[in-house]
């Protein structure tokens, strides 16, 4: 064995150690974040946040240390890289990407930006409450300005906005998004308009009333079990904003929120987070304890939550099987309703101003608008102060509505205040990935709809495990969708699915 | 300003940073431990334990680093130390003690011992289950052997056992413990005997029955509130073994265990852990975020849990006020019982074989036996294989009972299997410190018994805060008791208190 290879071997060992250590610290931070959001005592938050900051800094320090830089140089040299196992190779790639990205931002600038983001989020909160966009403009301007500088430092890809997209969906481009959202616009805007003028709005009156919290909890647990969520590798708790967190495949936690007057909130929230959780619970054993043991991108992650929430959880077959169970959980309250009525009621389409309250169909239009605006900011020089005008015009055009206030318009989301530009597209990408995968699943799994209607959800879970979950971050999003469907991501499947489903529900002929 | 002083100042700053970092990591580990004991999913425990191990190692690394060694050398030099604030001075002292102790154990030896302890705890568990002391002997021998080596490496104080005592109760000596336990033996053994032959055993039949869990929870929360436990700086959960954990003064958590057939278990468990928690919640602001923000010793900590559990929570006055409340929580179940009957019933004395089931009085005899045996092991060469014989003889002598099996005798406690020699005395020290403090409190706080009987518990809590809690680890245990009572620790106050209380309950005249 050559001396060089022996050298690489000890360097590989050290690299793996550092990667494992960062993952371990990350797992521990995950527990603390979960705790902070599920009931940590108020008076301890100040010191706890400082402690979290200290450990986060340590992870950052390791990931950008000189030692890490040297190890990455050695291990990513072409002649070495090809000797690595696929896992090690991918691990080196990921870590190198992070190293390069972090090293390009001067430490002072990074510190200033962390402080600014935190101030900006507070300013946004106040501005939203007071409907005071003007008060928020100076912060938003600075946040945009820093992001423009980051793009220059990281290096402009095909367009400046592409550099930001790559943070959340590696390899995704503006060209591709233009194509994807172009089709969404041309097919979903007319569909939403046709629905708006339909006389067949589903009845939703039976969703009103008070639904016992304990029964809601019980039903949430029941459905998670049916989906194949493993309660010995997770737990279900409550929090103000529902979330799922994968600490390790053996500990993937879900939270939900029970509203007494809205039984659908906890129900679909639980299925949504349950989809995220199935992903994280089923990553291959060999990736456990490495930074590759997580979802491969925001978009693929969101595809799983949305596939389970909407394409399974809001399907006709699902409620053929589970509506009688729901009725049993709330005796007397839903006796006069049929499974079909319930199915139609939970799929009502209603153009609205607020993204997080939107239905499955128009949700994509909310995202499309945000995508177009972000692209204008970074590729066409749109400035912060002009956002409300552009925002309102786009809402009028796509959804036929004009926000009466900025609080109900451009100020509604937290994302931009913290600098998360390029994140929004993930939500619709999730819908598109999901539809494309389900299209394949229906061909590969015989009688899938019928099986779902019999409560056999596990074959779908197993298939998704093999196709998606098991790979963790070992495959890139584009590789996943290509392997699953034999073609790159297309919006056609989402549009087809939505058209078919909603033309039926609204009897558009 | 001299150059030397400027140098010291930057070293002091760096030292404080490292101390804070260790405390922050410790706080984070505390959250993870709490989580593991209150419901973390089973399947995540393996990786979680490794992650905890990694962060613990990092704390150990910092505390024994060359940088820490150099900082401690500089800051503890006589001419520098006197320029430090009392907090910094004490911090340097504590850190130096830890540094010296850890540096004296070779790294290999430390690693071997960690592995051995873990194996030994498993072997103990099995041995206890199978009543197989012989199977446990090889492990116990090695554990004792390592501890004898540690004593040599750390340096023998007045006697070898003194070196171990110092780990848990800094400054405590065998000479002093001989004096303290000597008086306990001479006064409590006859008292227990007199009680055993008394005809006035309190009635306890009303404690049998089934007590609603939700009502038990509610009453536990009610009593904690009355004690002044701050629920905005803590929370009450359930775990198999109750504990309290002070993550920071703003987050001090308690767990308890609700037994349907024993209402006293959760009740006194909660008050006990509540006493620990009051200590940690009320440490001075200026110590928060430093390693001095914790109880000063095992013994002083235990004094607070036991003072609240026994001297307050099992007092006649306490139940004059709270028994009607307890009756309200369990309607119909305790109607035929008087507060006085309840008070006597919860104070029944019953010599028994098992320490953790012992009453307030005989508990001290269980500890005395363990102390005498530990002293024999390290100062007189008693060997592992001879422990059952010594154990059984001492139980016969002090409690009049002979364990029918080793599982009910020498194998009952986990402590020795993990190498925690020198820990047991803390429990009785807690009782002694507590009695000595209460003796002063009764002189300093006018009509203390009457106030407790009116449900005014806060004056006692405030007094203890000023005397004990606020100081955290800034004062040594001996300094605390000296400042509170004007004299060193004596066992007289505990013996007086127990004699008075139990001669009354058992009408020994």
From TrEMBL, chains A, B:
The active site is at 273 (proton donor/acceptor). Keywords: Carboxypeptidase, Hydrolase, Metal-binding, Metalloprotease, Protease, Zinc. Binds 1 zinc ion per subunit. PROSITE patterns: PEPTIDASE_M32. It holds the Pfam family Peptidase_M32. One of its GO terms (biological process) is proteolysis. It comes from the Bacteria. GO terms for molecular function: metallocarboxypeptidase activity; zinc ion binding. Its EC number is 3.4.17.19. Its cofactor is Zn(2+). It catalyses: Release of a C-terminal amino acid with broad specificity, except for -Pro. Zn(2+) binds at residues 272, 276, 302. Broad specificity carboxypetidase that releases amino acids sequentially from the C-terminus, including neutral, aromatic, polar and basic residues. PANTHER family: CARBOXYPEPTIDASE 1, METAL-DEPENDENT CARBOXYPEPTIDASE. Belongs to the peptidase M32 family. This is Metal-dependent carboxypeptidase. It comes from Cohnella faecalis.
